[in-house]
From TrEMBL:
Protein's name according to its UniProt entry: Uncharacterized protein
Organism: Coniosporium uncinatum
Length: 264
């Protein structure tokens, strides 16, 4: 983990512990931190832990290169928090801040109002809103929510769903007329009170969108499809937030997990 000056910090294995398996014993037999994110002030590092049903909170010191663990956000038992993103509803870096957490096992998005401690020793969270990653529709059996991202204009939030096969789309092989299954991307409009309004459930362009990325303009979404072994680029209407048809696709062998835009 890099400090803001480029030096390295590390988290020991002992930092992530679990006294006993979680409610979903098959998936929560041990801690499973999935990513780290930095809060809007740059003071804290958060790590969603699917195995422990926690979002772990750390303060860090760029000079001593040390981490201090503070009280974690406790997610719903068995929900499996996977990824998270901060949303600033105002121009302030400490007021009107919300944290949106996508849970893989429960297929939910939950928002929390964030409060900063007066002594800079942690964060507190107040649950505001929860919805499922299918816009309130029935969750398909086996679905597993994955990525969460806020649009560049801070107006929309999108999550990816794996293993739901919610759509049948035209085959990417022009010689094959058979329809193929596609998992989904769900888009919501962000509201200033930390709640969401459902906009759309759209085809992801194939199977297992573990990750996706919006370009700077917000008019394209690149999706690496782990089980389809290809990357697709989908058009996106910036004003409505709706995701449309594929404008490009290219096969890549192997289980794709991540894509990033290289834009100057």
């Amino acid at each position: 983990m890099a400090g803001s000056d480029g030096s390295l910090m590390s988290v020991s294995n002992e930092t992530f512990t679990l006294s006993q398996p979680g409610p979903n014993a098959a998936r929560q037999e041990a801690p499973h931190p999935h990513e780290v994110i930095v809060d809007p002030t740059g003071q804290y590092i958060l790590a969603p832990d699917l195995g422990a049903d926690l979002v772990r909170v750390f303060g860090y010191d760029n000079y001593a290169l040390t981490l201090t663990e503070y009280e974690s956000l406790k997610a719903a038992p068995g929900s499996g928090p996977r990824h998270a993103v901060f949303y600033n509803s105002t121009a302030s870096t400490t007021e009107g801040i919300y944290l949106f957490v996508v849970a893989e096992l429960a297929n939910t998005i939950t928002s929390y109002a964030v409060t900063y401690s007066a002594d800079n020793k942690g964060l507190s969270f107040s649950k505001v809103y929860t919805t499922n990653t299918f816009g309130g529709k029935t969750i398909p059996a086996g679905a597993a929510a994955a990525e969460i991202e806020i649009s560049p204009d801070f107006k929309f939030l999108t999550v990816s769903n794996r293993n739901d096969s919610s759509f049948q789309i035209e085959n990417y092989n022009p010689r094959n007329q058979t329809l193929e299954p596609s998992d989904s991307l769900a888009t919501y409009k962000l509201r200033s009170n930390g709640k969401l309004s459902f906009v759309q459930l759209a085809p992801a362009g194939g199977l297992y969108p573990r990750n996706f990325a919006l370009n700077k303009a917000g008019d394209r979404v690149a999706v690496p499809l782990q089980r389809s072994e290809r990357v697709v680029v989908l058009e996106r209407d910036v004003a409505s937030g709706r995701i449309g048809q594929a404008v490009a696709d290219f096969p890549i062998e192997g289980e794709l997990t991540t894509v990033v835009w290289d834009e100057q």
